[in-house]
Amino acid sequence: MTQIGWAPLLPVWMLLVLGALGLLITLIGFFTHLRGTGLRLLALLVGLLWLADPQLRHPILQSRPQDVLLLVDRTPSMNIANRTALADQAVKSLQRQVGSLQGMSLHVVDVPGGHGQGTRLYEAMAREIPGLPDLAAVIMVTDGVDQFPLTHLPAALTNPPGGAPVPLHLLVTARGEETDRTLPLLSAPPYTLAGKDAHIRFQTEDIGAYEGAPVLVTTRQDSGAAQKLGEVRSGQPMDLTVHLTHPGQTLVELSASPLPGEASLLNNHTLVRLQGVRDRLRVLLISGVPNQSARVWRQLLKADPSVDLVHFTILRSPEMEDDTPLSDLALIPFPTHELFEQKIRSFDLIILDGFQNHNILPDSYLHNIAEFVRKGGGLLVVAGPEQTQPGALQDSPLDSVLPAHVTPDSVQTGIFHPRPSRLGQRHPVTLDLPPANSWGPWFRLLRPDRTHGETLLETDHGQPLLILDQVGQGRVAMMLSDQIWLWSRSARNSGPQAELLRRLAHWLMKEPELEENRLKAYFKGSTLEVTRFSTSPLPPGQAEVTAPDGHTTSLSLTPVGGKEGILTGRMAVKDLMPDRIWTVRQGDLVTCTAANRENPIEDKDLQATATLMGPVSRVLGGATVWLGRNGPPALRQVNGTGSLFGPGWIGVPRHQVAVAGATRSRALFPGWLALPLLLILWGLAWRREG
C-alpha cells in the first residue's frame, strides 16, 4: 500500500524555530504595511516544505508462485472430428509457454468420461481447487458441454484470498458454434401383450439451429428392411404403431435424416426395445387325490403373477358308495362339461397330477384334451401307481399324445437318484441346473415298456423319469414318478425342484427362452457374442453377421467344451454403431441384437458450443477462444486490474506480495523544483518592495 512520509533535511526543532522566526517577521511586515510581505510568506512556506522533504513511499513487491489449473475434456464426445487433436495442440502450447514464465506452475488434469457418467468438468474443478492455494487462473479445454452445470460459482473463484476473482478461460475445440440433430424418445410402453399394438411417440430436435426444418424419418424392425415414415418438421412429435407378433423382445430402429453441417450423426438414431408378453397364462391343475405334490404345484404356480391357476382335487369318485345323503356333502361338483367341453381352449396348460379317471371323464372329454394338445396346448402328466390300474389315462383316447406307456407291473420301489440324461445336459429345461450329485433320492418310479420323444431325466441306472414330446402344434411332458415333492421336505435331500418345474411349465407354454433350437446374440462391451443352442450335437459352423450399414461378416462358431449342442463365437467390433440393429443368421435361425449406448447422457448433445459455459467464463473475466479458428492462444502474466485477454492472448493475474520492512521512496517536492520557485518568489517580493 502506497504511503506519504517525511525525511526532513534539518532537525525538527530547527524547522520549528525557522518557522517561528519567519512567522514573526511576516507579522511585523503586515503591521508595518511592508510591501511584498505575502510573497515572502509564500517563499517561507516553500522553503520549509522543501526542508521537510515529503516523500511518497511504495512497498517493494516480490512475485509469489502462481498455480494455473488446466482441465482437459477427455470424454467420448471429444473423439468427434478433430477435437482431440485441437485439445492436444493447445495443451502442448500452454505447457511450452509456462516454462518461460517465472513462478508459474501448470497443473494439467485430464477429465475422463464414458460409462454413462457424462462430462463433469465443473466437478473436477471443484475437486482440484482446494489443493491449489496459489490459484491464479483456470483454463478449460473442452467442446463446451457439461451435463452437470454449476448451481453457483465456487467461493475460491469469486472471492479468493488474494481479492481479485480468478479468471476462467474457455478454449473450445471447434471453429465456431455447431449444430446437432437428435431423435429423443418421448414415450414407449415397457410391456405389450403379444398380438397387440405398441404405440411409440418421438420427435426430432435440432440443437443450435432453428426448429421446423424438414426431417425424413425411417424405421426398421428386427431384421426387416428400412421403411420411410414420411417427412416431418423438427420439434414436432410423431407417433408410430408397431404390431408385436410374438412374446419376447422386438427391436425397432428409428433414424432421422442428417442436418446439414451437424457435428455428428451418432445420435440421429434411436432404438426402442419393445417387450412382448403373453396375456395372463391360464393353467388347469387337476389332482386325482390329495397328495404332497399338489401343494408343490400350487405354491409354484400361485407365486407366478403372470399365471391364473384353476385347481381341482378329486375327493370323491362317482363309484364311491356310502350312506351319506348327497345334500349333506360339502363338496363342489366337478364341472367336467364346462372345463373340457366349453372352456378347454381358454387354458394354456393342463396338469394331471396323480389323476385316476374312475369314470370321472368320458372318452369324449379325454379326446378333447388330446385335441387341445394337437392344436397348440400344453399337457403335463405326473404319473404314479394309478397309471398301472384299470381305466388309466394310457387306456383312453389320451394315449395317442402320451410319450410313454407302462405295464401293470411296472411300479418299482427303492432308492434311486434322478440325473439329467445325455440329452438333458444340453436341453434348456435341464441345462445348467445344480450338480446332480447334490440331488436327493426318490423311492418310486414307473418303468415304461415303450417311449417316444426326448428323455431329459433318468435314474442312475438309466431308467427314464421325465419325457418331453411335441404333438402337432402342442407339447406334452410326462413324469414317471410322483415323488418330486420329496425335494421340498428337507434341506439334506433337496434338489432343483422349483427351477425344474418352472422351466418345465414354461417350456410347455412355449416360452421363447426355452426353445431347444435357438440362436442368441448380444454385445458385451465392444464384442459381439453369438451362441447356437441345439438338442443334438453340432459340428463347427459359420454364422453371418450383418452390420447396420449392410456389411456382412462370417463368424466361426465352435463347440463349448463339455457341452454338446452348444456353439459359440465372438467377434470384436470396432464401430459399434449403438442403437442400430445387427442381424445374425445361422442356417434357418435368425436373431437380432443391438449395442447399447455407453454414454446416453453425453450423446444427447454432441455439438461444440460456448453458449453453455461461456457465461460462466464472462462472469469471472475470462476469455472464450475457438481453437479451430484461432489456434492456441498466447499466455501472458498481467499486472494490475486490467483486461485479462485480448486478440490472440489470455492473461493470468500476477501474484505479488510486499517485502516486510522494505519500501521505495520518491520525493514529492524535490530541490530542482523548490529552488527555482524560491528564487521566483524572492525576486517578486524584492521587486514589489522596490
From TrEMBL:
The lineage of its organism: Bacteria, Pseudomonadati, Pseudomonadota, Alphaproteobacteria, Acetobacterales. Keywords: Membrane, Transmembrane, Transmembrane helix. This is VWA domain-containing protein. PANTHER family: BLL2462 PROTEIN. The chain crosses the membrane at residues 12-31, 667-686. Residues 533-553 are annotated as: Disordered. The keyword Magnesium does not apply. InterPro entries: Class_I_gatase-like.
